[in-house]
C-alpha cells in the first residue's frame, strides 16, 4: 500500500502514484458536493474509477493526441494524464461547473492538459479538435450516438475507445450499421488491466476508416482531405 492507494496503483501509475492519490483525495473531498460522483462511489474510487480508467492506457500508442469526450469528473482523462505524461490530452466537457472542476484539478496536480468547453458534435469543436489519434469516452452514450459524435474528431485510422459494461459486444453488434455510417470499422471488444484489476476494464475499440456518410449516402470530406485537395 502507498498511503490510501491499493498496490495495483503502483503498477498502473508507477512513480506518479502520488498524483493519483491526490486526485482521489480531491474526489473524496469535493466529488459528492459538486455532483461529480455518487455517495456510493467513495469506497470504490480506486477500483471502479481511477484504475478502471488508467488501464486503458495500454491501448494508446506513444505520443498520442487524445480527446476525452464528456470528461465529467475527469474520467478517464485525468488518470490517463497521470499514467501517461507522453500523451497530449484534451478534456472536452459541456457543463461549466465541471469545466471549472477540471481546470482546478489540472492546476492542483500541475498536469499539462487542455480543457475545452463544448460538445463533440458542435462544428467549432470539430474544427478545433480535428485529426486526433484517439478519442476516449466513459459512460457518455450508446455506440450509435457516440460514434456519430466522436469519429469525426479522429484522423484516418484513429481509434475510438469507449469504456463499456458487460453488454459491450451486444451493443457493438446492435449499432454496427450506425458505426459504419459514421465512418467506423467493424470494431472489437478489448479487456484492459488483465492480471492487475480484479475486474478488467471493457473497452469497445472502433477505428475510423472513412468519412461519415451524408443523408444522400455520400462521404463527407475530412478537413485533412480538403487541405490535401487544395494543394
Automatic annotation (TrEMBL):
Function recorded in the entry: Specifically methylates the N7 position of a guanine in 16S rRNA.
Q: Where in the cell is it found?
A: Cytoplasm
Main localization category: cytoplasm
GO MF terms listed in the record are: rRNA (guanine-N7-)-methyltransferase activity
Region described as Disordered: spans on this chain: 212-231
Keywords, A to Z, come to:
Cytoplasm, Methyltransferase, rRNA processing, S-adenosyl-L-methionine, Transferase
This protein's GO cellular component annotations are:
cytosol
Major enzyme class: transferase
Q: Which InterPro entries match?
A: rRNA_ssu_MeTfrase_G, SAM-dependent_MTases_sf
Q: What is this protein called?
A: Ribosomal RNA small subunit methyltransferase G
- For binding S-adenosyl-L-methionine, which residues are annotated in this chain's numbering? 70, 75, 120-121, 138
Q: Does the keyword rRNA processing feature in the UniProt annotation?
A: yes
Q: Which organism is it from?
A: Saccharopolyspora aridisoli
UniProt superkingdom: Bacteria
Amino acid at each position: 500500500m502507498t498511503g490510501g492507494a491499493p498496490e495495483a496503483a503502483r503498477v498502473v501509475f508507477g512513480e506518479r502514484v502520488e498524483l493519483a492519490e491526490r486526485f482521489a483525495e480531491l474526489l473524496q473531498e469535493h466529488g459528492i458536493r459538486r455532483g461529480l460522483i455518487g455517495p456510493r462511489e467513495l469506497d470504490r474510487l480506486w477500483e471502479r474509477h481511477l484504475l478502471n480508467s488508467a488501464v486503458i492506457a495500454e491501448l494508446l500508442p506513444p505520443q498520442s493526441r487524445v480527446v476525452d469526450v464528456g470528461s465529467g469528473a475527469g474520467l478517464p482523462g485525468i488518470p490517463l494524464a497521470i499514467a501517461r505524461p507522453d500523451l497530449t490530452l484534451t478534456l472536452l466537457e459541456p457543463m461549466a461547473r465541471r469545466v471549472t472542476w477540471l481546470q482546478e484539478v489540472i492546476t492542483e496536480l500541475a498536469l499539462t492538459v487542455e480543457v475545452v468547453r463544448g460538445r463533440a458534435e458542435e462544428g467549432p469543436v470539430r474544427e478545433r479538435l480535428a485529426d486526433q489519434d484517439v478519442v476516449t469516452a466513459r459512460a457518455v452514450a450508446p455506440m450509435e450516438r457516440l460514434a456519430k459524435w466522436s469519429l469525426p474528431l479522429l484522423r484516418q485510422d484513429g481509434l475510438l475507445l469507449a469504456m463499456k459494461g458487460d453488454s459491450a459486444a451486444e451493443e457493438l453488434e446492435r449499432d454496427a450499421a450506425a458505426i459504419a455510417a459514421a465512418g467506423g470499422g467493424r470494431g472489437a471488444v478489448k479487456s484492459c488491466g488483465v492480471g492487475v484489476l480484479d475486474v478488467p476494464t471493457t473497452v469497445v475499440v472502433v477505428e475510423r476508416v472513412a468519412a461519415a456518410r451524408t443523408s444522400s449516402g455520400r462521404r463527407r470530406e475530412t478537413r485533412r482531405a480538403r487541405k490535401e485537395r487544395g494543394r
